[in-house]
Design a protein that fits this description.
Length: about 450
């Protein structure tokens, strides 16, 4: 297969020549790793992405998610790559060994994610959300909560979600109305409706652990009164068996793109039998969620990069093969041979724009990932503050620039393909559709601008 997903030379240039990530191995945290091991990870990610994720991309797009008799089914072709992804430990490639992870630097996991995301973004949504939920438990869960849920999430045995959005609480999360009612046993009954929940219901895993924002009765209005709860679809009964926890999928959205990703309406506690377990302290839900925001927003910037990268490389490959017209120096020569469209200056202009944009986004996102590693292993508070400061200011740019410009690259890829690009048999129209959502979820790009200028 020609290189159609990610430019490996550029990835290695950024990792080893620009950022010199091999020097991370000099730090005690990464002393057991080496550049050879980093290369091996990237090579294995490429193979799994090309051989298993990519073939399921278009089929999954056509087949979509099915919602029948209350059951949500992902495209059949997702099951095998998802299983291989989990078995290979990819879900926790950059998480500590103690939680079942492989302990690689975040930036190396990030490079692997670029390959998987370029091959099949819809499929990547499932482990992506699961990882976010696992990280919340790692940081804020009690030892018991970690034992019950975290390890199963880091391994991918169970799925995870983030449940913020409600019909009248989108950008304005503080307007949410989902209630948490105290129970005598110290836990809470959860009652409310969430919409647009990615991976909210599906048949990839036996159980799904929802991270739900809700307001405890009597808590202050707005974001200050929001708490976060662990709400499993199946909860543990006293005898340790798993029983239904009164979480129902009410609908699955029909969307412009990411057809293989289940975007669900969820109803909690229709029968007053949905138990939520408080994560962290009461009324700290937004703070806790924000803590995970950097990684989540970086991941969405990666969506723009990865889909733009795949669209660019497909267009480049096509431009080398498609014969049309004559070389511009031969316009008046009726005998002139047809040339590949890459010979035409306007097509070259488009390809150069796409290449430089993608390489720029990649440099930006990888640098932000590198700063996360440097902040995590900093040996002084000053050093930590410096790198964390870079992360904080770069994240809204990574998210908004990555998604906006990634989308423009996808649009230009269609232009390079001409009429074929507009037709469903051509891969780049899916890239464009799958990319659009990146500027909307995880805080719209307008909100990223407010974050950058107002908060940072
Ligand atoms: C496919 C998909 C998957 C999703 N996955 C999840 C998920 O897993 N979990 C989850 O909780 N949610 C999820 N969402 C919801 C998503 O995060 C919201 O759609 C998004 O936050 C925007 O909210 P909204 O749709 O209500 O738009 P609105 O908040 O109504 O915004 C509409 C427009 O107004 C602008 N706007 C709103 N308020 C302001 C303001 N104060 N200042 C400036 N501009 C403003 C916005 O930028 C936007 O352009 C998903 C949505 C989709 C479509």
């Amino acid at each position: 297969m020609p290189q159609l997903l990610v430019d490996q030379r550029d990835v290695k240039f950024i990792l080893y020549e620009q950022l010199q990530v091999q020097k991370l191995c000099e730090h005690p945290r990464f002393s057991e790793y080496s550049q050879d091991m980093f290369d091996m990870v990237i090579e294995q990610a490429r193979k799994l992405a090309e051989n298993e994720f990519y073939p399921a991309n278009r089929i999954g797009d056509r087949e979509g998610v099915k919602f029948e008799d209350g059951e949500v089914k992902v495209p059949e072709c997702y099951h095998k790559p998802y299983r291989l992804y989990c078995e290979g430990g990819w879900l926790s490639i950059s998480d500590p060994i103690e939680v079942g992870g492989q302990g690689f630097p975040f930036i190396i996991g990030n490079a692997a994610i670029e390959f998987f995301s370029a091959a099949n973004w819809s499929l990547m949504m499932y482990p992506g959300l699961t990882h976010g939920a696992a990280r919340l438990l790692e940081k804020y869960g009690t030892p018991e909560q970690q034992e019950l849920y975290m390890y199963k999430l880091f391994s991918g045995e169970w799925g995870g979600t983030m449940c913020l959005t409600e019909p009248n609480a989108g950008t304005d999360v503080g307007a949410l109305t989902t209630k948490a009612i105290r129970r005598p046993d110290g836990n809470f009954n959860i009652v409310g409706q969430k919409i647009f929940i990615s991976s909210g219901a599906h048949n990839l895993t036996e159980n799904i652990v929802h991270m739900v924002l809700a307001r405890i009765e009597g808590a202050p209005k707005g974001t200050k009164g929001i708490s976060i709860f662990i709400v499993p679809r199946l909860r543990y009964a006293e005898d340790g068996s798993l029983v239904d926890n009164d979480v129902v999928c009410t609908n699955v959205e029909e969307k412009l793109g990411i057809h293989g990703s289940a975007t669900c309406g969820l109803s909690f506690g229709d029968n007053d039998n949905c138990i939520g377990y408080l994560l962290g302290e009461e009324n700290r839900g937004m703070r806790i969620m924000f803590d995970m925001m950097n990684e989540a927003r970086h991941f969405v910037g990666m969506q723009g990069l990865a889909l733009g990268s795949a669209a660019y490389l497909h267009a480049l490959n096509y431009a080398k093969e498609r014969l049309q017209g004559v070389h511009f120096t031969q316009l008046k020569n009726p005998e002139a041979p047809r040339v590949p469209i890459i010979e035409h200056p306007d097509v070259r202009r488009m390809l150069m724009f796409m290449k430089s944009t993608i390489e720029g986004i990649r440099a930006l996102l990888y640098y932000a990932a590198y700063c996360m590693d440097r902040a995590a292993i900093a040996e002084s508070e000053e050093e930590r503050d410096k790198f964390q400061g870079y992360v904080d200011i770069l994240i809204p740019v990574c998210k908004a620039y990555g998604s906006d410009m990634g989308f423009r690259v996808c649009e230009m890829a269609i232009q390079v393909y001409g009429g074929y690009g507009y037709c469903v048999d051509c891969p780049v129209e899916q890239h464009l559709r799958d990319c659009k959502i990146a500027s909307i979820y995880e805080g719209t790009n307008g909100i990223q601008a407010l974050d950058l200028v107002g908060r940072k």
